[in-house]
Write the structure tokens for this entry.
Amino acid sequence: MKITKISVPFPIEYGYGRATNAYLIEGETKALVDTGIDSESNRKFIKRELEKAGALDLNFILLTHGHLDHYSLGTYIQSETGATMMIHELDSPMLEDYIGHYFSWFCELRDQAIEGGFDPGLLEEARIKLMTAASMLFKTAIFEKFNEINLECGALRSVHLPGHTEGSVGIAIGDSVISGDVAIEGSTVVTDLRQEFESLEKLKVFSKIYAGHERTPLLRGDIDSLEGHFISRLEEVLRATRKGATLKEIVVTLYRGSALENQPYKLILPINQTVAYLRYLEAEGLVEKRGKRWISFKDSLSTR
Ligand SMILES: [Zn+2]
Ligand SMILES: [Zn+2]
């Protein structure tokens, strides 16, 4: 089976953002893994790309996860090709109600951030900016849910890779896997770090790991580096909380505070990551929350 990368631009009318790597798979069936963000320019772009590849008879659009930058162009592609769009059942609530899902994710973070010492006014500004952007980009989608995919006698199959989102999957073809946002060069957004570590472990059996953004394919060494990045972040959190620290103090230590304050919405991902690190360490019994402060019991993961 042939895998072709299609780098779908971030539409300039929405400002600055990263291109999404979509992948066309051609075997007995034709499938597009991920799609990019819907916009007039991207509609023209993707139609041209599919036409060039002789793939307007696409059978499937397989989504690695339910984020807008991966699914939203899908509805248009479906209307042009008749392909069936499919997503893991655990990420399907995002496609059913993206705004609601996004809003509850935001509110949970906001409440923790305010408790952890962040200014409620800044977070309100962030909420307005992020929710406006999400409503502008949101698209309804027609899709089917799956638990597992197995096509062409197992030559194309799904691998559950939670960590970035609960229902993230990789699409495995031989010793290659298209892995969405579970592994991106350098770092990636995590919702559950324990799951993320397990998923990175699963990726190690593949020789080529096709990422959802940036450089692709990644190799085994890139996965090791990503793991190393998360481990050094955890160590930083342990050191930052040795004498007790609020969530804000930890975020500032990890992300060098001042630049974060100018654009409130840029605070949200650092807060998300830091909360994920704290949850992981708490579950490992290495940190504890006392009142509004986090306290660590160890300086380093390795001295456990
Ligand atoms: Zn994503
Ligand atoms: Zn993405």
